[in-house]
Amino acid sequence: MSSSSWQLDHEAAAEALNRLRSAQLVLTPTHQTVDADGLASAIALRLGLRQLDIELVPVLSDGQMPHSLRFLPGIDEVLAYGRDSLPDYDLLCLVDCSDRRRLGSFYTDDPERVSGNVPIVNIDHHVTNDLFGQVNIVEPTAASASEIVAQLLAEWGVEIDRDIAQCLLAGIYGDTLGLRTDSTTSRTMRTAADLVDAGADPVPIVDALFRVKPRSTVCLWEKALRNVQYTGGLIWTELTKDTLDRCGANASEAEGLVNFLVGTQGAGAAALLYANDKGWRVSMRSLPGAVDVARIAAEFGGGGHPRAAGVQIEGGEDEKRAFVEQVGSLAAEHG
Ligand code: 5GP
Ligand code: MN
Prior knowledge:
Blueprint: H1 10-22, E1 26-29, H2 36-50, E2 56-60, E3 79-80, E4 91-95, H3 104-108, E5 120-124, E6 135-138, H4 145-155, H5 162-176, H6 186-197, H7 202-211, H8 215-226, E7 229-231, E8 234-239, H9 241-247, H10 257-261, E9 269-275, E10 279-286, H11 293-299, E11 303-305, E12 308-314, H12 317-333
Parallel strand pairs: 1-2, 1-4, 2-3, 4-5, 5-6, 8-9
Antiparallel strand pairs: 7-8, 9-10, 10-12, 11-12
The chain binds guanosine-5'-monophosphate and manganese (II) ion.
Manganese (II) ion is lined by residues 37, 96, 125, 144-145, 175.
């Protein structure tokens, strides 16, 4: 674990606040297949900025609300793209979003939305962030976007109340698997401790994110584990729409499976492939010291972090095979 910590760019933080203050309404579309960090950091911004009379509205970019995140305070104030009409907005504030393509349908339905005509404040912690904002607060060594938002809100004079603290702790726990990843620093732990002091309760977070699940999740894992394959240094499995249907499961229920696969002896990396209309959405993991999956993902047009990354593979079985073999040989080379 590292005790080194990132430094907030105070100038960018001040400029971001200026832009937020002069906006009529700020829209915060989350990244697609949103996770705890992506959604909780957006809600924390909404709740915090409300104290400064700034209206920020989070929107689920693909319209999908993962069941496991319904426990977040303020969840009822989140809009779903495609279901709810969008309010007029004059500023975008993106959080936990490494590039604009991560915005799912919100982007693909009208790429002009994020072409810069409406200014963008970009708050993120991905090493692959392409700095698409007019203001960029990007700290790749922060373990989660929520860790950055915690410091930003404090810098802006927001009082971290119990609901904000609960959201931010959920975001931190989500991206660090409960303070367990190698991205976790002593500062991450201090921030988490401060949030507990502010009223956050880790128990419902741990239950919702890591323990409580519907039976359909067990069905899905059972089928996925039966199909595990080893290619070079890669352990991987695939989920088809048919498997999801047969289990009555949602794709978000497979989150956690790739974290279980990584660390299998003899495999330097793990991948979970979700079949979709275009090909496969791939979720990748590696252990410290092994292959950098963010670099592999970036080569294929995706991104993420050195130990957790993702990409969309387009094509059919040949493209899938080529991808798996390439990752497998890189994973074998880099232990
Ligand atoms: P997960 O495997 O949990 O879906 O994603 C792991 C990490 O990779 C997350 O930080 C996520 O933001 C990033 N990631 C996943 N899929 C993609 C993708 O298609 N493009 C980019 N740029 N990042 C991704
Ligand atoms: Mn994140």
